[in-house]
Amino acid sequence: MPINIPDSLPAVEILQNENIFVMTEERAEHQDIRPLRVLILNLMPTKVVTETQLLRKLSNTPIQIQVELLKTASYIPQHADPTHLDTFYTTFDEIKDQKYDGMIITGAPLDYIAFEDVTYWEEACRIMDWCKTNVFSTMHLCWGAFAGLHYYYGIPKIDLEEKLSGVFEHRIVKNHVPLFRGLDDIFYAPQSRATSMREEDIRAVDELEIMAVSDVAGVTIVKTKDDRHFFMTCHPEYDADTLAKEYYRDVEKGLNPKLPCNYFPDDDPEKMPVVTWRSTGQIIFSNWLNHYVYQNTPYDMKDFG
Question: What share of the chain is helix, strand, coil (3-state, %, to 5)?
């Protein structure tokens, strides 16, 4: 997929070096088509890394995508480059009158913090409420998934005694749906969280359906029956070294973390992990964009909402 993003975004050079087609703004302006507009609310402190991971996964179909990046106004990340944020990111008040075909709400390092105690929780709620009328389909990732399920349906998050980290086997329980076309019945994906939710709480909501589960990690993918919202607790967008960087970060903080499960060969952190989830991420994000966004979103978004 040709991704239309600002020419100077750091992800451009990274993706071009991976032979991923990134369309320049100038070339995009001369194409007589309507690109899909996708908004990414990036709540991760590693802005550039997360941008690149997600853009990589949005790059595998022939549809042109115009990607915009959204930041919180009520909280300024301490570890993000202010110049980068000012150059490439917008705020909710600047785009609240616009409509988007798709949106991604990322995770955030907010384990053990109640939603209502999150600095930008009120702003996040405004954005999620706005999604009902201004975004055709939204993908909620990790903390974004728990936040969405809590805000829309009152489902509580459960704090785990220790962090769930590693690469786990997941099982598809809703076969023959477009989201999983081309995916094996069993797939692998990283998990990195100290938060969970009860399956019975999800099943109690008639609007929701469970799509994939893990014997270790629990419920992994949930969606609304109208396909407007997807909630994914795993991280098929992660790079090969993402869990390693998180592990070493926690070691340096003196948190004495456990090794990520099923990640380092022979449980040796000196060995390079073998990626078993790359195709899973490509398939899930491509299927979401194609079958749930592109195939169904109105050509004129003024007709939506």
Answer: 35, 25, 40
Residue ranges with strand state E in the chain? 3-4, 22-23, 36-41, 65-70, 89-90, 100-105, 135-141, 158-172, 186-196, 208-214, 218-224, 229-232
The closest of 193, 171, 174 to 260, measured between CA atoms, is 193
Identify the active-site residue in 51, 68, 123, 237. Answer: 237
Q: What SS3 state is found at 220?
A: strand
Candidates 213, 114, 232; CA nearest to 169 is 213
Which one of the listed residues 142, 229, 234, 246 is annotated catalytic? 142
Average the pLDDT over each of 30-44, 46-60, 133-147 and give the range with the smallest value: 30-44
* pTM recorded for the entire structure: 0.90
Alpha-carbon gap, residue 221 to 292, rounded angstroms = 15
- Does 237 participate in catalysis according to the annotation? yes
Task: Tell me how far apart the alpha carbons of residues 229 and 131 are, in angstroms, rounded to a whole number.
Answer: 9
- Cα 263–264–267 angle (5° rounding)? 110
